[in-house]
Please model this.
Amino acid sequence: MSTSHEASQHQQASAISSIADPIPVPSYPTGGLFTILASTTIHASPSEILDVILDLDSYHKWNTFVPRATVVSTPSSSSTNNLDTRLQVGTTLTLHAYMKGPGTACNEAPVLVTIIDKLGDGRNGYRVVWKAMAFNAWLLRGERVQEMVDLGSGNTQYKTWETFGGPLAYVVRVLHKENLISRFRDCSNDLKGYVEGLEK
Model:
């Protein structure tokens, strides 16, 4: 059981975010232009973090970057009136993202969930992947990966990155680089604070 001092340390540790050379993503292993990435250590199990990421209904409680996500279709729903708001592979949704922070203009980003699975590479944890659907992939492609890796002692490394490619990626880098770095860091910190605050 963590002491109050240990709990305070967990809460204070901030996520690190940056821009980097392109990191391969499942749908686009080559040809990327740049990657935005962030990472932090969360005092929780990978499965606890996964549950929060998959639960779209909880986003407004913690996610200042994307406080709302609207499900467009899911593999398990035959009617748009009965859509499952828990992410699954094949879910298409619209992310309502505040690129410049809460209270600013909202950007709508359609995405498709492509992977929800165990890591399967000798590490204990999970991976969630979705890819952008707003443009044809030759013009602008983006795919976001979220990994939760068990570090032991009740801690998990949360690492997320999105790799962008295509001609319009140059425009995204010029116009949105700093905002994306900030918002990926904020989102990671939001997730950490929310999950560590849940009753165990």
Observations:
- The longest helix spans residues 168-197.
- The mean pLDDT is 91.
- The beta strands are 16-20, 32-42, 68-73, 92-97, 107-118, 125-132, 141-152, 155-165.
